[in-house]
Amino acid sequence: MKRLYESKPAALHVACLAGTLLLSFTLLLPPLRSAPAAEPQRQSADYLSAEDSDVQALSAVAQLGRKMFFDKSLSDSGKLACASCHDPSNAFAPANDLAVQLGGADGKRAGVRAVPTLTYHEHTPLFRIGPDPAIPDNDERLPPIPVPAADVNVAAVAKADAANAARAAAEANVPQGGLTWDGRAMTIQGQALLPLLDPNEMNNRDVAEVVDHLEHAPYAADMRQLFGPTLFLQPALALDEALFAMVRFQLEERSFHPYDSKYDAYLAGKASLSEAEARGLKLFDDPMKGNCASCHIDTPSRIGNLPPAFTDYQFEALAAPRNKDIPANQDPNYHDLGLCGPYRKDFANAGPYCGLFKTPTLRNVATRKVFFHNGVFHSLEQVLHFYVERETNPGKWYPRLADGEIDRYNDLPPQYKKNADVADAPFDRKEGDQPALNDAEIADVIAFLKTLTDGYRPGHDAGK
Ligand code: HEC
Ligand code: HEC
């Protein structure tokens, strides 16, 4: 693979540009490289130095992408690299506990969303609206709602038919896949341009400014050597090659997808879970308790037997409370509605998609400092309590209106509050009901979530 890149980078690149993320990953890379068991956990931010043996194993294009990933000169301020927000020593997410990160020309402009991990995106399907089973998950289809005999009750038949039609439509129109919280980037490659141009992030005016930075970067000579001496005479091509290089880095560098958590060792029969972790896994799977695995899938995929990604790549409205720590939220008319905008434009009028965000992977989730798309939660305890108490004790999560009524789902405008998921456990309870998980059970689920942190060393306990 490495030799191929060195001798014929352009040809491969065209194939990869045209291909999908999935395709490029499965064709060009082994799906899973297992870590040597005794390798020490990597902690330091500089472990991706050129001397690192993993870096040596990267193709020439990926090594170039690595330099770009750490290059602050690609930002307008000269102070922000991809790695500034996607910190390699913290599963490629921020190590600080800000809900949103700062960037822009003066390094003080706040973003609008929490920074996701960059680990385990390599099997993300392209964004699409389509039937459920097309994605690599293990979801079972629901049985149809029985239609009562026609002579019994016409209204009931109509109702059941309508319910079947609605369910069929819902099953055929599931938004899934893509990168970012709203899936607006089709592929990792398409994604990389977004931060480069985002005024809250790397703040380049346009593609020409990005290409200008590249042309003056210390690795410009590498780019000419790999992609041709006249590369910078064709700015669009230079940009494509640069984005391609960053993707190759994210796909080839092992630390983006080491699959060496305790849970991976457990699935491989090389580790056993502690009692608390095992109880947590059971609660995670149980449709009447956590029901977590119905969205955060924890078994290998049906198609391709890929290791569990802990997401079904689908979109849901979980109605996280509004986060006053995001400056954009000071405007009461501003709403981050995920799939239906304002950052993604194509579903601006698709009411049922408003408030839906992509289900994130839970791999390395215990290393996160803020949770959910708006970073409103600061611990796994808070997240778990929100899941099981959102409906049973809404007053704990949402403020009260002037008339004393609880302002349920207060980050959604009134017309979209109905999109909040109340069908799936643990959200299917009523006010005053017992939460689906008690405190001891929550502790067990969190013990399990900690087994998803990479860098497990057999004989040591993960996540401690
Ligand atoms: C100022 C902080 C910041 C910088 C710098 C930054 N990102 Fe991000 N990144 C984010 C945020 C915030 C999101 C989520 C954006 C959204 O959902 O709209 C994100 C999302 C992503 C995603 C999608 C992850 C997912 O879960 O779907 C990828 C891939 C990514 N960034 C790669 C990069 C690359 C490559 C660079 C450098 C060219 C970069 N980022 C620079 C903040 C940053
Ligand atoms: C109906 C699908 C669904 C179910 C069931 C579900 N989740 Fe989630 N989960 C999501 C979505 C969607 C998000 C992102 C929501 C957002 O940001 O607005 C999320 C976010 C999270 C996060 C935050 C991750 C991050 O990177 O910020 C954690 C932790 C989490 N879920 C754990 C769980 C656990 C534990 C359970 C079971 C108790 C569970 N989830 C059940 C869909 C689901």
Structure characterization notes:
- The chain has 15 helices and six strands.
- It has 464 residues and is mostly helical.
- The chain folds into three domains: 2-122 and 181-256, Cytochrome Bc1 Complex, Chain D, domain 2 (Orthogonal Bundle); 128-176, no CATH class; 262-452, Cytochrome Bc1 Complex, Chain D, domain 2 (Orthogonal Bundle), CATH 1.10.760.
- The model is unreliable at 1-53 and 133-152 (pLDDT under 50).
- Bound molecules: heme C (2 copies).
- One heme C is lined by residues 80, 82, 84-86, 101, 103, 111, 113, 115-116, 118, 121, 179-182, 188, 191-192, 195-196, 201-202, 246, 343.
Distance between the termini: 38 Å
Estimate the helix proportion, in percent: 25-40%
The description of the largest β-sheet is: 2 strands, antiparallel
- Strand order within the widest sheet? 1-2
CATH third-tier fold name of the largest domain: Cytochrome Bc1 Complex, Chain D, domain 2
Radius of gyration: 23 Å
Count up the helices.
15
Please outline what is shown here:
The chain is mainly alpha-helical.
What labels would you give this structure?
6 strands, 464 residues, two-stranded antiparallel ribbon, binds heme C, mainly alpha, globular, single chain, Cytochrome Bc1 Complex, Chain D, domain 2, disordered N terminus, 15 helices
